[in-house]
Specification:
The protein is mainly alpha-helical. It is built from two helices and no strands. The chain has one domain. Keywords: Membrane, Mitochondrion, Transmembrane, Transmembrane helix.
């Protein structure tokens, strides 16, 4: 029955994609958090926040 094997391959591929996506998103959000922490340390953090608000 080749259909079952094809389905299993698709399931494996999708699972792999999901795990990779989760890992990449975790790394990306960690990177964003680091940028935000650096901005908080700087003196003109409030000015940056206001400019962001105006951009939105």
């Amino acid at each position: 029955m080749p259909q079952i094997s094809d389905l299993s391959w698709i399931n494996l591929f999708m699972f792999f994609n999901l795990t990779m996506f989760m890992m990449m998103s975790m790394i990306y959000f960690n990177y964003l958090q680091k940028i935000n922490n650096n901005k908080k340390k700087s003196k003109n953090y409030m000015i940056n926040k206001k400019s962001m608000l105006f951009k939105w």
